Amino acid sequence: MNKMKKYYYGICFLISVAINILFSTYLYVGDGRWGENNQEISCRSSLTWSEKAASEAEAVAAISCSGHGRAFLDGSISYGQPVCECYGCYGGTDCSELSPGCAADANSGDPIYLEPFWMQNAADTTVVISGWHRMSYEYDDDPMMSTELDKYIRKLHSIAGNAITQDRYIVFGVGSSQLLSAAVYALSSEISSSPSNVLASIPFYHLYKDQTRFFNSENFLFRGDTSSWKSNNSTDNMDVIEFVTSPTNPGGELKKAVLGGKTIYDHAYFWPQFTPIPGPSDHDLMIFSLSKLTGHAGTRFGWAIIKDKDVYEKVLNYIYLANAGISKDTQLRVLKVLKVAIKEDGKPFFEFAYNKMKDRWDRLAFVFSNSTRFSIQQRHPLHCNFFHESRLPSPAYAWVRCERDEDEDCRVVLEAGRIIGQSGSTFSAKDRYARLSLIKSQDDFELLLQRLTELVSFENGNMETM
Amino acid sequence: MNKMKKYYYGICFLISVAINILFSTYLYVGDGRWGENNQEISCRSSLTWSEKAASEAEAVAAISCSGHGRAFLDGSISYGQPVCECYGCYGGTDCSELSPGCAADANSGDPIYLEPFWMQNAADTTVVISGWHRMSYEYDDDPMMSTELDKYIRKLHSIAGNAITQDRYIVFGVGSSQLLSAAVYALSSEISSSPSNVLASIPFYHLYKDQTRFFNSENFLFRGDTSSWKSNNSTDNMDVIEFVTSPTNPGGELKKAVLGGKTIYDHAYFWPQFTPIPGPSDHDLMIFSLSKLTGHAGTRFGWAIIKDKDVYEKVLNYIYLANAGISKDTQLRVLKVLKVAIKEDGKPFFEFAYNKMKDRWDRLAFVFSNSTRFSIQQRHPLHCNFFHESRLPSPAYAWVRCERDEDEDCRVVLEAGRIIGQSGSTFSAKDRYARLSLIKSQDDFELLLQRLTELVSFENGNMETM
């Protein structure tokens, strides 16, 4: 019996020790380091009401679109989740199917080129908006605009060194698009019988003309090109409002006013990634756009920097009457994005953006260097105050000229080469020119370059074709 | 020796069993159910890039403003965190200091009345926007507008039963404010020598006049009140565009057009919380606003429901030329909010909103019932299709009339009683009237009621004072 007892206690002891070994293993190895399989330890995140939305956002971001597209929270739903929205010529449910022979769409200035930067900075640029965020029409200290955002915009310009903001007023708009029109209204004549003459230099962004004509106010009239105007009119005592795009769209050159009247400087592209910054711009009315700076075109945000108080109040009045200010959700998002853009004096952001554009131009210029049929704009080095050295511009667009006599409609010529560009006449220039966008997604750019390479090689290989 | 051995093994066995008990207790009780004190189990939230922003948002939401204010992510920073922005007459760093004698500000239609609902539904209405959310100008399947949001707006109208959307086009705008102007442009004459006549019925929302005059197009002219126009002009063959506000602002009555020409129906208040819904509205051009429906005025979102394709294209063109569409961040936020508003056939939301308004009107009506010096608009019961019973309207505003002969300027009379309202002339009506907003925060309403009660009691207690 004693032997049985000893045997029994021995077994219990061994079992007890075995259980302890199991428990130890479970606790010190199985705390999650085994990965997702180990679900037994319940884990309470410290988040409460925001966790559901955060999980939802991460789940959607994790939807694989083969690296050639993106799924968004508000995309169309298919099989219970938002669909992949594909870039370039990719398609299929996961954007993995490349459509052979598909045209490279380089028509729109859709600025997806910076998407990788924001994905790399995901944690800092995410914004969580509560259901009760800023329901009021007004801020506590301003009827329409965020004081914090105003502050960061001024910091941004100080860091980029591209505009004077001290003692200047700032007004936000729904994209710089809205501010172009607000500026025209603010600067225009108050005498209907003597409307202001609105002009721009060819090639110019079509919106100046289309918008001005559309609003069709008694206070202003779109007159067209500055050169034609200058040769037909003495500019003394003439009420002119001149749009000055600097750098130009599409060419990318820095410009000054030519008429000596009132000016609206459209500085949408006046950032280090597109052009050397010789110094801070200091004009009476300057308009900037978030779209081209950070790539957030969908957010619809622009701002005007204004010297004169009376003009400022008129621009503000436009924004108030047109739509009672811009979305406060948008203003919060922009604040988040700009805080990241200006980190470490803007170096990581502007270096990323510049390197992206430089790389694209290096490769593009190489392709065109092999062509006599097509040419692109000349670029001249300038000292850049931001990067502290002389650099070539890297404009957002290639302004392509078809050099052969018979190639009068360059857009059509490119289209035959499966490249979609914007015709010169869209910019009130000759159709011998066409604009190609260089700021779309990497997939779009790669396809553009491929098609251009094919086109140029056709040219060199076989002068008869196309 | 054997005895020592037995003793030794006995002790080991007991120790082993004790350890078993400890481990068991630790595992099956200490898995977090002890609460926050139990920190030993390392806890990895499954969130990654969104966690920082989510924590930040929750931390700001948790800032105590004594229940009399709100701190926001983009508020001014003081001592390292956003300041409290206080309601009504509260002030101080935590909004706990009530300023005695401070005036009740009932001027603005700032719709904070629904804030508690959104706070109660925090988890469902939070939206997490990644740094790369919809950077493009366009949606995959539409140049400017979210297809999902369009779908939910149609569901909303179907549930509320307040508008026909089938076979109708929808256009989004930066608040209904923007769509009012877009509609005027879309409906107006294309012959400058014969501009359209834009009219509205007194008392009308000032923006119709201010906006129309400001844009000063050659295509339209603001002519004023419909009644005056009707008595001076035959409406046959006259190019008229009539703003029909239904329910009216400020009175809250349902209205129809009076001129028989083109109409723009401003249905900003045509929701069950403000008025009985007799049936779905079916006019050619109807404009709705998120601001008054859900209270999200700061978001700046409205939509137009349009019958005619040509008119639709013109309104779309306005939005495109004015600002290339509205913010995609805004559209995502609105989608989230509307998904919650229509849950359970809209019952929780509309019941909450209606009960809030009804409670305010019951209390307000009681105060005014004791007054002969002031009167407010009469309300008449109507059958409501949404609530399936006859109900009194509960308008967003009280339209106060000063009854005493000498009280010609009602706004001034109320101001002396420390109540800030909007003068009748702001609505092109007589200054014998003043508008009081009933849709602000609960703190604002309580103070308004208190001041009104004081004012009325003065009237009854002492006819000489004030």
UniProtKB/TrEMBL annotation, chains A, B:
Residues 104-456 form the Alliinase C-terminal domain. One of its GO terms (molecular function) is carbon-sulfur lyase activity. The chain crosses the membrane at residues 7-29. Coiled coil: none annotated. InterPro entries: Alliinase_C, Alliinase_N_sf, EGF_alliinase, Ethylene_sulfur-biosynth, PyrdxlP-dep_Trfase, PyrdxlP-dep_Trfase_major, PyrdxlP-dep_Trfase_small. Residues 48-102 form the Alliinase EGF-like domain. The keyword Transferase applies. Its cofactor is pyridoxal 5'-phosphate. Keywords: Aminotransferase, Lyase, Membrane, Pyridoxal phosphate, Transferase, Transmembrane, Transmembrane helix. One of its GO terms (biological process) is amino acid metabolic process. The keyword Transmembrane helix applies. Belongs to the alliinase family. This is Alliinase, EGF-like domain, pyridoxal phosphate-dependent transferase, major. The gene is ALLN2.
